[in-house]
Amino acid sequence: MSRLEEHQVRELWSRYKHHGDQGARDRLILAYAPLVKYVAGRMSNGLPAHIEESDLISYGLLGLIGAIERFDPAREIKFETYAVSRIKGSIIDELRSLDWVPRSVRSKAREIEKACALLENRLHRAPTDQEIAEHIGVSVDEFQVTLSQIATASIVALDELWAISGSDGDQSALIDTIEDPKSNDPSRMLDLSEMKSRLAAAIDALPKREKIVIALYYYENLTLREIGEVLGVTESRVSQLHTKAILRLKGRLRDEIEPASIG
Predict the structure, then answer these.
(1) Which phi-psi region, left, alpha or beta, contains residue 125 (left: φ > 0; alpha: ψ -120 to 50)?
(2) pLDDT band at 184, cuts 50/70/90?
């Protein structure tokens, strides 16, 4: 955030939310604009060269504006947490609308997701690269190339595992499902708790190096290059590990909803 004191920010929120002061709204946008650059910078890693970071910033700014307009300061949620989710969602939605990911890559990603879920059910552990490669009928080298293709063309991220679709098809971020203290319906909080438990269990079942990548990237906010330095591997290898971890998680979580048939 820009150099505004905490009490100044609270005053801006009050002026905007209670009095509809558009000047206060504009100042809040400027104050939180660095969040957009931060998110866009992280998401630009691994995207095709023709997608510029400045475009991601433009997409993310729409998410920030929406977050400011929808945020309720009375809720016990830090605005930065809420805004980052909205910014990411806005960027992802815009990238999806561009439809730049080849259909063949989407198909390969889904095939690996299904393979991971089926093999994990069969083996009762995370399958190795060799086992996944054999299952989908390719060599380990070809499997590694496929992971690189998915990583390069994909915006798949752990955040998307927390997306919830409403009956109208619109997706909400997980943060939007947090129970309002004024609400009389505790069932959504129970659903949220169960979702957290499932995701935690899925992450815990990952192979050690993939678990480390997830922890360092999402919880310590390290870049892929920095994680590579920690693990002593290349950035492209970290990208592969991240992609493989996400595909495992998506496969496992989807399999809990639609169990894979064991053959």
Answers:
(1) beta
(2) very low
- Whether residue 263 is contained in a domain is answered as no
Crossing angle of helices 103-123/129-136, nearest 10°? Answer: 120
Q: How confident is the model at residue 116 (pLDDT cuts 50, 70, 90)?
A: very high
Which tokens sit at 50? 């023709």
Cα–Cα distance measured from residue 222 to residue 43, given in angstroms and rounded to the nearest whole number: 12
Instruction: For residues 121 and 79, state if they share a domain.
Output: no
Residue type, 63: G
pLDDT score, position 160 = 53
Distance CA 105, CA 222 (A): 27
Q: Return d(Cα 90, Cα 60) in angstroms, integer.
A: 6
3-state secondary structure of 172: strand
The total of structural domains in the chain comes to 2
Collect all residues with Cβ–Cβ distance below 8 Å to 137 and sequence separation of at least 6.
none
pTM given for the model: 0.60
Within 10 angstroms of residue 168's Cβ, the number of other Cβ atoms is 6
